[in-house]
Amino acid sequence: MRPNKLKQLWAEGKAATNVWASLNAPVATEALAHSGADAVVVDLQHGMIGESDAIHMLQAISTTDTVPFARCPWNEPGIIMKLLDGGAYGIICPMINTAEEAARFVSYCKYPPDGQRSSGPVRATMYAGADYVANANAEIVTLAMIETKAGLDNLDAICATPGLDGVFIGPSDLALALGRKPGPDSEDPVTLEAIDRILAAAKAAGKVTGIFCASSEYAQRMIDKGMAFVTVTNDVSLLMKVPAQMIAALKVR
Predict the structure, then answer these.
(1) What is the largest CA-CA distance in the chain?
(2) Which domains does the chain have, with CATH numbers?
């Protein structure tokens, strides 16, 4: 089976970078995959992406050695298994509140006896290799999002979930849960304290931590803290910010 580059990087104590794909645009996703990022996350939760769209985007990522990831819309077995069968090498699951929810999420990603994933990896086998079913449990990455008050309250138990590779911080929802202003790249001391708490709990459990960032500068700060998986930008932000900066630089009025 094709090895998961992210797991290799983490085993070496290195951080992995990723970019976020929110638009139903396979060619744009392909361009993101050619950026040099270690992974591209196809976002089915808040992105403008449906199930069939996601498969095309995973195919686009596969034109490179970038690792194809997906964020599922919810902790539901059907879509998680579909994304894995479509070739996703990692799943980020939103709104994990308890250890029981984390265990269910992991079970949807793993074949028996470690989980309850159904066997039928049509495209995954083409992408990963004929021995996919025998090795997928060891290669697929599972990341549970910590972004609610309940998730924070149950943080240690979630991090202790067998088979869970790590946690991923949703900074906007986390800030909302704490009564703070939502948004990435937070400088709010309460939100930052919660981020540090999540990072410490995951480290104590031997798990990796990831976070959504909106800039390379903030992502580097998070790497320096010990984050192992950092988002540096997303396609929507690039389309909105870069042209706006270029237009603003022109003296046309």
Answers:
(1) 67
(2) 5-248 (3.20.20.60)
Quote the CA–CA distance of 36 and 43 in Å, as a whole number. 19
Residues in the chain: 253
At residue 225's C-alpha, the angle toward residues 224 and 228, to 5°, is: 80
User: pTM for the whole thing?
Assistant: 0.97
Separation of alpha carbons 66 and 40, rounded Å: 7
Nearest to 188 by CA among 201, 207, 169, 175: 175
With cut-offs at 50, 70 and 90, classify the pLDDT of residue 193: very high
Torsion angle, CA of 21/27/28/34, rounded to 10 degrees? Answer: 90
Nearest CA to 90 among 103, 112, 78, 105? 105
Rounded to a whole number of angstroms, the distance between the first and last alpha carbons of the chain is: 58
Provide the mean pLDDT of the chain: 97
The tokens for 33 are: 């995959």
Cα distance between residue 159 and residue 112, in whole Å: 22
pLDDT tens by residue, 68-112:
999 999 999 999 999 999 999 999 999 999 999 999 999 999 999
Active site residues: 46
